[in-house]
Amino acid sequence: MSIVAPSKEQSKRSAADIFAAFEYQWNYFILMLLKEVDEEVTISFEYHDDVDVQSEDKIKLYQIKHSIRKNKKKETINLSDRDVDLWKTISIWMKIIDDQPAFLTDSEFHLVTNKAISKNTFVKAIESYKETKSVENLKSAIIAIKESEREKSDIVNSDSQQKKKGLDVSKVIEELLDKTYFTDFCNQIFVSETPGQLKEKIKKIMSNRFGLNCNRVDWVYEQLMTKLRDDSIEYIESGQAVSYTGEIFTERYQSILDIGRQKIHFRTDYSFQDFNGEPRDLLFMKQLFLIGDTKENELDRIAELTTKWLCFNNNLHEYYNNDIFIPDDVNKLTQNVCSAWSSCYRSKHRKITLESTNEELCDAGCNTVDEMRNKEFSLAGNQLEEFLSEGCIYYYSNSATNIIPELPLIGWHRDWKDKFKK
């Protein structure tokens, strides 16, 4: 008999399912890690089980099962009575108990799946047993699963998988019913249903547990997930278990969490005396000179505007260099400033043409900068007061910096790019 190779589409589905299952398992590990508030409890990935949670007196084993398969309504399929995910898990746990009987005494066995479990006969049976303690009803329900005539959905979703995975569900059920620890084991089994995507759930727990600023949640999530994954690869390559106590987790990732919690207080006590140099050489001042907003001999006015620029500049660079601001914070501010400027500039230069006089060009420029001075901006979720907001527009119309090498990004005169942007 010749071997039939899977189609490209089948291969894609298989690869997608494997990747999604691993991602789901990893994300559930992170979820459990974030949920645990006891610093002495150890959370492990692929150690005793897919995930395990070990305290001084108990260990909880978690089998994490994920499916990307959908029913006709585009919903994740149900956990059927003869589902391979269910009975393969039962089989794994029985082997653990057979090899290490002590596991049964101090353990809980958790099956976590994104499949719907409400109609599963076994799940209903063990939940009922925990309330009624009726062994007869429990065995009767499980025997019914073994002996029931299989529906088409079970044949497709379970029997074909059994052959593929080498699992005989009926045999597993027989083994379970014959175990001397049958009732004790069933009493320690828990089946729960979770969403197919855990990302938002992780973010919510992360935000609540560590008191993150709302604008920093996405950044902390990306940084933390990347660092955890990189560290885990190092553990695996060195032959160590991927395990964390709450204490180790907090200590190792404290710097990321601190940035996420940081409350920012802007300094406004910088003075003109803190500036070293000739203010009239500042590019933002040259832009204002060009349109006649400020004259080169207005020393008090020049000092006032330079101080506003300096205050914003120093706050931005000090906090950025100390990792209190992150690139995403600056990118959002840049987007907001440029968007506001674009609207103002277009509005005030709408009637400007190639034949416009210098006076008309200067008026349009002055009107543009005047309107921008009335704008209020925020940085890293913190509202900039009027003083800093005005300093912000001077920063964006000034020379390039290591933070934003594309500066200047805004200007006032019609020809500002030709005159000031290199």
TrEMBL record:
Molecular function GO terms recorded: nuclease activity
One Pfam family matching this protein: Cap4_nuclease
Origin superkingdom: Bacteria
InterPro entries, A to Z: Cap4-like_endonuclease_dom
Domain CD-NTase associated protein 4-like DNA endonuclease: 22-230
Protein name: DUF4297 domain-containing protein
